[in-house]
From TrEMBL:
Enzyme superclass (EC): oxidoreductase
Residue ranges occupied by any 4Fe-4S Mo/W bis-MGD-type domain in the UniProt entry: 44-104
Signal sequence range: none
Superkingdom as given in the UniProt entry: Bacteria
Organism in which the protein naturally occurs: Sporomusa acidovorans (strain ATCC 49682 / DSM 3132 / Mol)
GO molecular function: oxidoreductase activity
Similarity annotation: Belongs to the prokaryotic molybdopterin-containing oxidoreductase family.
Keywords for the protein's UniProt record, in alphabetical order: Iron, Iron-sulfur, Metal-binding, Oxidoreductase, Signal
The protein, known as: Dimethyl sulfoxide reductase DmsA
Enzyme Commission no: 1.8.5.3
UniProt xrefs under InterPro entries: Anaer_DMSO_reductase (IPR011888), Asp_de-COase-like_dom_sf (IPR009010), MoPterin_dinucl-bd_dom (IPR006657), Mopterin_OxRdtase (IPR006656), Mopterin_OxRdtase_4Fe-4S_dom (IPR006963), Prok_Mopterin_Oxidored (IPR050612), TAT_signal (IPR006311), TAT_signal_bac_arc (IPR019546)
Length: 781
């Protein structure tokens, strides 16, 4: 069934809403049911807006607007049904007014006047700003070619006509740009999963959880990280339906606290060892689903290996220690993971005997030194237990997906990039320093680069400094004006990244413009937010000033095709109307702010399992490749043919632990979306920036609860208040990622930005960001 939202008139309704509380169309609804406020005819308009940051969710908010100001924000108040749960906003979305009216909003274009990174700027006109950008872009293109232009990763604006999409479009008109592949989110999962399952880390949708008897959440913390607006709704339903929930996480996360029957606090980076030992128990107890393995997989045992691979390379041989003499027993894993053998044994037996069972992994475990292996190993366990392609089961890889997206072209058309070379997203700092020397061994695709990076667009991104690793190293690279010639950045604030730009531009906020919003998971709805209030000062949407730059480069007409940002949005909606049955017209969608379609349960790889002849896995063999010949052929010690536990550099067994005895992870927390909302007073009140530390670790250091501590390693240092808690395993500390880098004169970050401590060493296969893998020392400040 499909629900269509029918046209209603907001303004007329606002005075009479009590009687028209819920307006039901024949096959659709639209609701203004809440609120005493709407009943007061004081000129208040209720405007649907869209929260468009990168948290995985995409929630509906409605702004009460009076005299040009937002007086109140409410969230989705349409009927809440299992078929279509409300899209309710979290604390961040609901506090957005703090952000909109913040005194530090960047309101005017500015150019750098001091040295790069000093943070000294002077106000300029939009005309001067766009001329400077156009001149420098032209100069770099002439001198170095299109490979020299890089559009930085950045996720602040997930709207349909974002600055980054606009920059892609312009650069494609100008002959292309150096692109990247992968993301800071799921570099390892996205890269590694296709080798075993033939596609990116697909898993069953969250609404299937109610069919699971056992749910193992590995490094998955949706209570804070959301992933899909209603992930927690479905976890709660699953728990109510009787599922046992196990959370594996070095921290007793909000998800563990809310849902878990059992918490398994392993040492960071050791998931693969835990999983391998579970495989050992399953094999020992003969609990594996041998029929599933024989039918759908290669590489599990010696009888099912691809042609031409020497004996002894199967997964089972590895687990039983036939080659290396080390059976991967729970006792072996206990020494590595810090989890006692009995717990590992019991978890293995539970997983193998409770059917169906979902092993769902967050992205935390793969943002680690050997992050590719935990993803591959999760899939092996799911195959061994026959849970892949089953309702209530799961693929063992990533978080939940939906994959039944609406038939909508969701973004501004960006054209085609004539430059085919791309770099791993994490290696852009390398591409500044030694781009032309980078090879396939660095993960460069269709290389070599013809130039190092000379021009950077940093739009809706704090990755230039704050969100990338090893800030002190990045800083030196950016400060050297002989390397990058020009950096343009746009944002709401002069963030740590903007301080390193040459021209900074004030962006309007999603609530200050019309915008379309889509959720991460390919879910079944679209939000149309409308401009609720005017943007302050001279704030503009990135599309507007990029069209001015296009104009100055003689590409104005080609870039805009005569269309404004809103014209493009209208075109997307008109197109959706053609392709998606029941999709409302622009004016109609403006009123309701939302088009929802009932979702189907998504079971990842269901087709491959139900009809393997017709739908083989998209791997070279057409099967689940527990052994990958492709990976084996790379002949790389850290890229084994079957997933194996390989100790992480800066992990618990790295000799460096003598000097830096604590593992430090950087979780994503509820009070921020990355660095966004760090400035928001209400959210600072809800949750300050603190480091979690176990009392045992604090004791020897003389650190009490609330004390300030210095955290450091060879790369840098920060100061942060300590929260003593039993909710983290001893030997591990957690510093929430995303705090704004705020150095003192000695370069010590006073706010607690973890990326002053992280490393730029990439993971072996995906060349991804191992930002949770660091060793540190902590001292009382
Ligand atoms: N509130 C909020 N929500 C967000 C975001 C945000 O910044 N704030 N960011 C969004 C984005 S872009 C992304 S990519 C996702 C990120 O989602 P994730 O990457 O899943 O989030 P993390 O907090 O990095 O990691 C999840 C959990 O893994 C645990 N963990 C760390 N290391 C290990 C390990 O070695 N093994 C195991 N088993 N667990 C480990 C952490 O303690 C944490 O509780 O979240 C999205 N949602
Ligand atoms: N140590 C460590 N580092 C990490 C991670 C980690 O787990 N640990 N996680 C990584 C992950 S998963 C990700 S996705 C990245 C995120 O990296 P980023 O996407 O760079 O991080 P954000 O903090 O979301 O920055 C987005 C910026 O966009 C701005 N913005 C918001 N809306 C708009 C708009 O409409 N227009 C413009 N022009 N600007 C806007 C915001 O103010 C903000 O400064 O960080 C990565 N960094
Ligand atoms: S930050 Fe994410 S979860 Fe929170 S309201 Fe916005 S879209 Fe929803
Ligand atoms: Mo991310």
């Amino acid at each position: 069934m499909m629900h269509q939202i029918t046209r209603r008139n907001f303004l007329k309704l606002s005075g009479t809403v009590a009687s028209a509380a819920i307006l039901m169309g024949p096959i659709g609804y639209f609701s203004l049911k809440s609120t005493a406020f709407a009943q007061v005819d004081d000129g208040t308009r209720i405007v649907p807006v869209v929260c468009n940051h990168n948290c995985g969710g995409r929630c509906q908010l409605k702004a009460y607007v009076r005299n040009g100001k937002i007086t109140r924000l409410i969230t989705d108040d349409s009927p809440d049904t299992e078929k279509m749960p409300q899209l309710r906003a979290c604390l961040r979305g609901r506090s957005t007014t703090n952000r909109l009216t913040h005194p530090d909003r960047l309101k005017y274009p500015m150019k750098r006047v001091g040295k790069r990174g000093e943070g000294k700027f002077q106000r300029i006109s939009w005309d001067e700003a766009t001329s400077l950008i156009a001149q420098n872009l032209k100069d770099v293109l002439n001198k170095y070619g299109n490979d020299a232009v890089y559009i930085q990763y950045g996720t602040g604006d997930r709207g349909a006509v974002s600055g980054r999409f606009s920059a892609f479009r312009l650069m494609n008109l100008l002959g292309g740009y150096l692109s990247y592949y992968g993301s800071y989110s799921s570099a390892c999962a996205a890269y590694a999963a296709p080798f075993i399952l033939g596609s990116a880390a697909d898993n069953n949708s969250y609404d299937t959880l109610v069919h699971s008897k056992l749910i193992i959440l590995n490094g998955f913390n949706s209570a804070e990280t959301i992933f899909e607006t209603n992930s927690n709704y479905w976890l709660a339903k699953a728990k109510a339906a009787g599922a046992k929930i196990v959370v594996i996480d070095p921290r007793y996360s909000e998800t563990a606290a809310t849902f878990a029957d059992q918490w398994i606090p392993l040492k960071p980076t050791t998931d693969t060892a835990l999983f391998v030992a579970m495989a050992y128990v399953i094999i020992q107890e003969n609990l594996q689903d041998q029929v599933f393995l024989d039918k759908y997989c290669i590489g599990f045992d010696e009888a099912h290996m691809p042609e031409g691979v020497p004996a002894g390379n199967s997964f089972k041989s590895y687990v039983l220690g036939e080659g290396d003499g080390q059976p991967k027993t729970p006792e072996w894993a206990e020494a590595i993971t810090g989890i006692d053998a009995l717990t590992i044994r019991q978890l293995a037996i539970d997983y193998a005997t409770t059917k169906p069972a979902q092993l769902m992994q967050g992205l935390g475990p793969q943002r680690h030194a050997q992050g590719e292996l935990s993803v591959r190993m999760g899939a092996v366990l799911a195959a061994m237990t026959g849970n892949i392609g089953k309702l209530g089961g799961g693929s063992g890889t990533g978080e939940g997906y939906r994959n039944n997206s609406l038939k909508i072209k969701p973004i501004l058309p960006i054209g085609t990039n004539a430059v085919k070379t791309s770099i791993p997203v994490f290696l852009w700092t390398d591409a500044i320093v030694r781009g032309t020397e980078m090879t396939a061994a660095d993960g460069v695709k269709n290389g070599p680069l013809k130039s190092n990076i000379k021009f950077i667009w940093n739009l809706a991104s704090n990755t230039l400094i704050n969100q990338h690793s090893d800030i002190n190293k990045t800083k030196k690279i950016l400060q050297d004006e002989n390397l990058v010639q020009f950096i343009v950045a746009s944002d709401h604030f002069i963030t740590p990244s903007l301080k390193f730009a040459d021209v900074i531009l004030p962006s309007d906020h999603a609530f200050e413009r019309d915008d379309l919003g889509y959720p991460w998971s390919g879910d079944q709805y679209v939000l149309l937010g409308s401009k609720a209030v005017e943007a302050p000062g001279e704030c503009k949407r990135d599309y507007w000033w990029i069209s001015q730059v296009a104009e100055k480069l003689g590409m104005g007409a080609k870039f805009t095709e005569g269309k404004s940002d809103v014209d493009w949005l209208k075109e997307i909606v008109a197109d959706a109307q053609k392709n998606e049955p029941g999709f409302p017209a622009w004016e109609e969608l403006k009123q309701t702010g939302c088009f929802k379609k009932e979702a189907n349960l998504h079971v990842a790889y269901a087709k491959e399992i139900s009809d393997r002849e017709r739908y083989p896995f998209k791997t070279p063999s057409g099967k689940i490749e527990i052994f990958s010949k492709t990976l084996h052929a790379m002949n790389h010690p850290e890229i084994p043919g079957v997933p194996k536990y390989i100790a992480a550099w800066e992990g618990p067994s790295d000799p460096l632990i003598e000097k830096y005895p604590l593992q430090c992870i950087g979780p994503h927390i509820k009070r921020r979306t990355h660095s966004i909302f760090d400035e928001t007073p209400w959210l600072e009140e809800a949750e300050g920036q603190t480091m979690w530390m176990h009392p045992d670790d604090a004791a020897g250091r003389g650190i009490g609860d609330g004390c300030k501590a210095k955290v450091f390693n060879d790369r840098g240092a920060l100061v942060i208040p300590v929260r003593l808690t039993q909710r983290i395993r001893p030997g591990v500390v957690a510093i929430p990622q995303g705090a704004w880098y705020t150095p003192n004169a000695e370069g010590v970050c006073q706010r607690g930005c973890i990326n002053i401590l992280t490393s730029q060493r990439p993971t072996p296969l995906a060349h991804g960001n191992a930002q949770h893998t660091i060793l540190v020392q902590v001292a009382k400040q």
